[in-house]
Structure formats: C-alpha cells, structure tokens
Specification:
The complex is a heterodimer of chains A (about 525) and B (about 375). Chain A is of the alpha/beta class and about 525 residues long. In chain A, about 30% of the residues lie in helices and about 25% in strands. Chain A has 2 domains: about 160 residues, 3-Layer(aba) Sandwich (Rossmann fold), CATH 3.40.50; about 240 residues, Rossmann fold (3-Layer(aba) Sandwich). In chain A, helix 11 crosses helix 12. Chain B has one domain: Orthogonal Bundle (ABC transporter involved in vitamin B12 uptake, BtuC), CATH 1.10.3470. In chain B, helix 1 packs antiparallel against helix 14 and helix 4 crosses helix 12. Helix content of chain B is about 70%, strand content about 5%. The chains are: A alpha/beta (about 525), B mainly alpha (about 375).
C-alpha cells in the first residue's frame, strides 16, 4: 500500500503559495533529498510525513534558507525563490519554529523575542504587541517572565509568537508536539487552525499520524529522501499512513504479561537538587517496580526526567535507604556499584552521555559492560572479550554498521540506540532504567527496541521507561505515572486509562487551568 | 567559497600526516623569516635539522639529542596523560624545578655520603617534589573548582622564586666562595646521575623516559585507568555515566604529570646541569607542551617528537653561535611548529569543501 500518487492539483482549490520542483540535496555519503516536489496552497495546512532520516528536516531547512539545494527550483508567491539565508526567507514571509528552541533562559520573553527580530520595536511596545498576539491566538504568555522558568510548551509559544509578529505567509513547524501535553496540543491546534483560516499556510512536520489526520489538509510522504506519495490524511487510516511512511507493514510488539514478582527497585521519598542550571529538582519521588513489571513515566520534557535518570543510574547519589535494589539499600552507590547490584540504565542523550561519540563501538561496549560481562582482569581490559561482546550486541539487535571498530558517531541515531539498548539488556540485569528509548529512532527500529525491552521484562527484569511518547508508554507499560515539575504521581495500572485522565495527570495545559492530579 | 566540513570519522591519514606536514610548513615559513632577517634560509635550516645529525660535529651533537630529548619526553608523557583527560597542567616547569630542589636537597643534606642508596632516594624525593607541587592546583580544582591552567601556571613563578632563594641561600655551596649555586653533583659520585653510555648521551633520565613511554602506552591502551582518562577527555558526561570519579581522575593525572616532571628535574640537576643554579631550568616544562601535542598525545609519538624538538634545540644553538641568529628567532621557530601543528590538525576531523554559490547541478 505505497505510492498513491495523486494529481498535484486535484482537490487543491487554493491559490498556489509554494511550489517545489525537483529539489535534490546530497551530503557526503547520503542523499538527503532526491528530486522532491510538492505544492502548498495559501492557508493550507500541509504535512510533511516521514520517518527520522527521511529528509524532512533538510527539505524545510532549504525552504528556510539554512541549506541550499544542489539542484531543483522553488517558487514562492509566484516568484522564483532561492533564499541565501534565513533573514531573506523571513523577509519574504517564511517563518519557522524549530524542534529545539533557541532561547536564552536567563532573559525574559520579550527580550528573547526581540533578539530574533531584524528591527525590534522598543521593549514596552514589543511587550504590548506580544500580549495582543498571544490573546488573539489563544496562546497565553507573559512577556515579563524569565524563559528559564517556563515550561516547554510555554517556550514553544515564545517561538511561535516571535514568528507571528513577523506576519508570515508560510509557517514551518518542525515536530512541534513532541514537548506538549495533550491539552497543550489542543491549544496549539486551535491556534494553527485559526492561522490557516486567516490565510497563513502551515508546513507541518511530524511522524505522529493521528495529529496529522486531525490537523492537516494535505500530506506529502517522504521516504529515504524521495516523495513516495501524497494524500489527504483525513481520508486515510493511521495504519495506512504508517505503512506509506515505512514502506512495509508494521506489527505491534507482542506482550506476554507474566506474574509480577517481588519488588526489584524501590524508591522512597527521593529528593535531589538538579545539577543542571534551570534544571528541575526531584521532590519526594516514590515508586516501586516489581520483577517482570514495566513502569512507564510520562511527562513533558524538562520536568525532571534527566534528573530522575541520573538519580537512578547512580550519577547522582542520595541517602542509602532512598533507593533499594532487590531490597538492599543502594542510594549512596555510584554507577559502578549499582551495575554490580544489577541495575543498568540508558540515558536519553546518546552522543556524549550514553556513548562517547568518537570512541569505537568496542570501547563503547566496554563503557557499561565492563563489570557485569567480566571484561576487566586485575585492572587490565580484555579487548578480545570486549570485541566479542560488541559483536554479540551488533548481531542480536541488528545494528547496521560496517563493523565494531567504527566510531559511535558514524552510526545513525536509530542504529546507535539499538546498540546502546542492546548493550544494557545483554548484561542480564535485574533492573533496567531507560530514558527516551526510541527518541529520534525510525519506526522499525523503535518497534525492535520496544520488543527487546518487553522480552527482558517477560524474563523477569523490572523496567522503568521514561518517555515523552504517550503511545509508546501505553504500548509497553503495566503501570503508569507522570513526572511533573519534579514530582511523580502515584503509579496507576495502564489498563483502562484514557487520554483525558493522562492529560490531567500531566498537569493539564500550563497556564490554562489549575493542575489536577488524578490519583 | 571554501568551507570546513566535519568528517564522519576522523581521518587516519591526517592523524599521521599532520606532524610531518607541520614540520615542513615550519621550515618554509621559518625559512622566510630567516631570509627577512638577512640570513640564508637554506643554510639556517640545514644547520638546525641536518648538521646535528650528519654534520662535522655530529659525533658530539648526536649525544646531546638524547640529553635534551630525555626530560622533554618524560615531562610531555605526563602532560599528555592529563591533556587526554581534559586536565590542563600548564605548570610542568614549576613541578620540574620543585622536583629538582627537593631531590637535590635530600642528596645535599647527607653530603658527602658514599652510600649508593642515596641516588634512588633522591629520585623518589624528586618525584615527590613534583607530585606535591602539582597537588596544589589539583586540590584547589577539586575542592574549590579553580582553574588548573591558571593555578599551575602561576605556581611556576613561585617555584622560580624558590629556586632563586635556594641557589642564593639555603642550598648555596658553603665552599662556593660566595657564588650562587649549590654544590656540584659531578664531585659527589654517590648522588651523581652520570652517563651510562657516554657517546649516546644516555643517563638515567633517558632510561626513565623510554621506560615511561612504554608503561604509559600500555596504561592508555590496556588498562581501565587509561580508558577512563581517554573517556573523560572525549566525553565527560559519558565518563560520569561509566562511573569515573572526576576528583580521583584529576588527582591521578596531575599527580603523575607532576611526579614525572619532578623526576626530569632531578635527573637534570644531578646530571647535565650538575648543580642547582638560578637558571638551571631551560624551559623544558613549557617546551614539553609542544612536544606532547606534536606527538599526538601518544607516548610513542612523543618519543619521536621529543627527538625532533631536541634537534631544534641543538641545531638552534648551533645556528645562534655559528650564524649569529638571535635565540629568540629559534624560539619563534619552535612556537611556529606548535602553531602549524594545531592548524593542520583541523584536517583530521574536518575537510575543505569548495562550495559554489548556487550549487552544482547533478552533484551526487
């Protein structure tokens, strides 16, 4: 069910705003875009759908003037369009909200907005403009607040308002909902629909299919840098869209819920001050995970996920009895001793935290596997054994690499993640902690990683999955809790949870209503 | 327009090609410098690079190479260990001086013993002196988060002041007729670091340098401490995740580099220098920084780099005595070497790309 290519103009009764023809962009070793073409009408909400690495980001970077195409042409508002830099694109009416915000945490909202403008008006005037725009589009935001104190959703509003102040004709949004609660997503969608009704076209990048079905008028589907189809998302099921995007049919992971065993990881009254500037300190976090159980921890980024991982992995130490591994106090132990007790962990940031980017896969296998796989003898490293361990992980988790000697940074995000998750899972752990197991990983690899986690749980490991992807958590977890401003809600069974309940657990929409904690 | 583009993996070719290319560029630009100064560039370059090895006085100068290379290698290997871990000990010169003073003091305290054990004890005292001096920036860093670059560098000037004091008062030769400087170790056989092989210029310092190179090479490639050092330098957060204790690592690296610098100082003062004087130190501690980088922070590379740098020392002295080249010109020449090395080093991780404005159609 691939390649349902339709006539470009059918159904597009809107006047043409942006037309892209035959755009190609190659980087050394990879063709990011090959002969890509599509059209966006005025006021149209157009989805760019594709897996990670399909070429969506490169494509919009070309439209925004950050990258220049090797060949092909673009037309914008009837004129030939080849922006040399983002300022030129902005001047012509193209604005972009990036996935990763470029905001200064120590400055307030208005100052941040002013920094992104070509010729900012005086501060007081700007503040009143920000208030006006934020009210008009239902995006509550106080221009005097410090950005460091804002939630991720509020920070995104800063970026959006910065764009709206320039009155764009085309607004590009790169994965905008990955940092939002379900309620915040609703607010964002209302704003985007309003903009669309007023004639601003939106180019919406995502791999979340339900969102695209809910929001977008048209969709262009990319796979490996090529357009493989266009469609009207409302007329397709999410599964059809997914299969167009991936090119194969997908099978959801299998679950074999076993008997819950004794408690393997117990955390009680854990409070940790964040070591990160503007980080979120953990406040009185308590939970237990039994053998064979998967606890899913949801929450919008920046609510203490990184700190929780550091506290569980042993990079942050706490009082001994705050954390117990198999009933033994372990809070005051470092990563080495916690691994020895059976707790392994996988941090979110793969390039620099979970792995050393410039080191080989063999060395990265040693990074955490040294104790439990017995790779050290009297202080000396057994490289032959380490190589065998790396090769075992590569083979078992289908890591695509020329060999174990290549640097970790040469692997794509998904491949490296498969390696890093496999590295932890193959140490016969009794407790597994994973932060964002499939962030930035393509759908096929993500499915494989989830399956591997579930298999470990089925064979008796206790698993904590911290993620911002609710679908993922609902798929793998037995129990569910939310981390919100450093506090963890009481874990509840996943069965029977509704999206609404989850949204309320997540604190609803920041700034819109009082947080209710479901119990 | 020329742009720099990051390579997917570091280039092995440039990793090894960088030092020779840097030497070549130094010769060319240095040659231009000498020409501007009114010297014949070919003659100067030949005097620096060729004559010490194959010239008229090579039989003597070749021996000088190891005398100069020994301390440079010994210090540079210690520094490289820290640099690998992202710990920047810039004050090896001070640790070198303090090693010499403490080690010499121990020997001079029991003058004129004939017990042969005094020399090994002095060697230990020298290593201790350098280690202790390096512990000051190490502890300030781990306790108060001070910058080890600044503290270790400033301690060089403190060490120099102590050295001046030592040679004019507390270590002054009582039979020296009022001249500054300690007793000369050449007339103190039990404590002297004599040549083991005269013609090669090999003394215990050279032996220590070569043995250390092998040991540190093994540490870095085979031992878990070496892995942790490399990991901490390349990916500090991954190192914490692995379980490296940053405090212990700083103490370890500063300690080893300080102790090796102290050793070099002791071997120098009891051997080639012969006595503690106000200026017995000849800047080996600073030059070793260049040697460490020239050798790619790799112990075996540092051995080669040490000899190359020794060549510019010996040849540079020849050039200044025979051709009247100012000593500063030779130092500029050595500095150029580091400059070009770091400049060319960019090519290991990046490559040049010619990017024409609108793009080349049909590029793959």
């Amino acid at each position: 069910m691939t390649g349902t290519v339709r006539d470009e103009n059918s159904g597009a009764s809107r006047p043409e705003l942006l037309k892209i023809t035959g755009v190609t962009k190659a980087y050394p070793g990879v063709v990011a875009n090959s002969d890509v073409g599509f059209t966006v009408g005025e006021g149209e909400v157009h989805a760019l759908l594709g897996e990670n690495g399909a070429g969506k980001s490169t494509l919009v970077k070309m439209i925004y003037g950050l990258v220049r195409p090797d060949s092909g042409s673009m037309r914008f508002r009837g004129q030939a369009y080849a922006p040399m830099k983002p300022a030129e694109a902005r001047r012509l009416g193209v604005a972009m909200v990036f996935q990763h915000f470029s905001l200064f945490e120590a400055l307030n909202v208005a100052e941040n907005v002013a920094l992104g403008m070509e010729s900012p008006p005086p501060m007081r005037e700007l503040a009143s403009k920000i208030r006006a725009v934020s009210e008009e589009y239902g995006l509550p935001l106080d221009p005097d607040r410090m950005v460091g104190d804002l939630s991720a959703g509020e920070r995104q509003r800063v970026e959006i308002i910065r764009c709206l102040l320039q009155d764009p004709k085309l607004l590009i949004m790169d994965e905008p909902t990955s940092v939002l609660t379900p309620q915040e997503v609703e607010i964002l969608f209302r704003t985007l629909r309003q903009l669309s009704a007023e004639g601003t076209a939106i180019l919406y990048i995502s791999h979340k299919l339900e969102e695209i079905r809910a929001l977008c008028d048209e969709a262009t589907i990319l796979r490996r840098g090529k357009v493989v189809g266009t469609c009207t998302p409302r007329e397709r099921s999410a599964r059809e869209l997914a299969e167009m995007m991936v090119g194969t049919s997908l099978t959801p992971p299998e679950r074999h819920p076993g008997e819950k065993g004794e408690v393997a990881l117990g955390v009680s009254g854990l409070s940790v001050k964040s070591p990160i500037p503007f980080g979120t300190s953990l406040k009185d976090v308590s939970f237990t995970v039994a053998k064979g159980e998967v606890l899913g921890i949801a929450g919008v980024a920046g609510n203490g996920q990184d700190e929780l991982l550091l506290a569980l992995s042993g990079e942050l130490k706490v009082a001994a009895d705050r954390l117990r591994i198999l009933s033994q106090p372990a809070g005051d132990l470092g990563p080495v001793e916690r691994r020895a007790k059976g707790l392994v962990s996988a941090p979110e940031d793969r390039y620099g935290h979970a792995a050393a980017p410039d080191m080989s896969l063999i060395e990265n296998a040693f990074l955490t596997g040294s104790q439990r796989r017995g790779l050290v003898k009297k202080g000396f490293i057994d490289w032959a054994k380490t190589r065998a361990f790396a090769e075992e992980v590569i083979a078992e988790y289908d890591v695509r690499t020329p060999g174990p000697d290549v640097a970790a940074r040469a692997l794509s995000g998904g491949n490296l993640q498969k390696f890093l998750v496999g590295r932890e899972l193959n140490q016969s752990p009794s407790v597994i902690v994973i932060n964002q197991p499939t962030w930035g990983v393509d759908a096929a690899a993500a499915a494989a990683i989830r399956q591997a986690i579930l298999d470990r749980a089925a064979s008796g490991a206790a698993v904590v999955v911290i993620s911002q992807d609710l679908d993922e958590l609902l798929e793998v977890s037995d129990s569910f809790a939310v981390l919100n401003e450093g506090r963890l809600t009481k874990p509840v069974p996943v069965q029977g949870l509704t999206m609404d309940q989850i949204g309320l657990m997540m604190g609803g929409a920041h700034g819109m209503e009082v947080a209710h904690h479901a119990s | 327009m020329i742009r720099l583009e990051k390579r997917p993996t570091p280039s092995r070719f440039w990793l090894y090609a960088t030092p020779p290319v840097a030497v070549l560029l130094t010769m060319i630009v240095g040659g231009i410098l000498f020409a501007v100064m009114g010297k014949n560039p070919v003659e100067v370059i030949r005097t620096i690079f060729w004559d010490p090895l194959f010239g008229e006085f090579a039989f003597y100068l070749r021996g000088q190479l190891l005398v100069k290379a020994g301390p440079l290698i010994l210090i540079a290997i210690g520094l490289a260990l820290g640099f690998r871990a992202g710990i920047w000990n810039i004050g090896a010169e001070g640790q070198y001086i303090m090693g010499a003073i403490i080690g010499a003091s121990v020997g001079l305290a029991v003058f004129p013993t004939e017990n042969r054990l005094i020399f090994p004890v002095m060697v230990l005292a020298g290593a201790f002196g350098g280690w202790a001096w390096a512990m000051i920036p190490a502890i300030l860093k781990t306790r108060f988060n001070t910058n080890e670059i600044l503290v270790s560098l400033m301690l060089v000037y403190v060490a120099q002041t102590i050295l001046a004091k030592a040679s004019t008062s507390f270590l002054k030769n009582p039979e020296g007729m009022g001249f500054p400087g300690s007793r000369n170790f050449s007339s103190y056989p039990a404590a002297q670091n004599g040549y083991l092989i005269e013609g090669l210029g090999l003394h215990w310092g050279g032996v220590a340098a070569l043995v250390t190179a092998v040991l540190i090479y093994i540490l870095l490639t085979r031992h878990i401490a070496g892995f942790q050092i490399r990991l901490a330098g390349q990916a500090p957060r991954a190192a914490r995740f692995h379980g490296v204790n940053p405090t212990r690592l700083v103490v370890l690296c500063m300690g080893i580099s300080g102790a090796l610098a102290g050793l070099a100082g002791l071997f120098e003062v009891t051997g080639p220098a012969g006595q503690i004087t106000i200026d017995f130190n000849t800047g080996y501690g600073f030059t070793a920084i260049i040697v460490a980088f020239l050798g790619r922070l790799n112990p075996l590379g540092i051995v080669l780099a040490g000899f190359l740098m020794a060549l510019t020392y010996v040849g540079g002295e020849m050039a200044s005595t025979n051709l009247g080249l100012p000593a500063a010109a030779v130092q500029v020449f050595q500095g150029m070497l580091l400059f070009f090395l770091l400049g060319v080093d960019v090519l290991t991780n990046y490559r040049f790309r010619l990017s024409g404005g609108a793009a080349v159609a049909g590029a793959k």
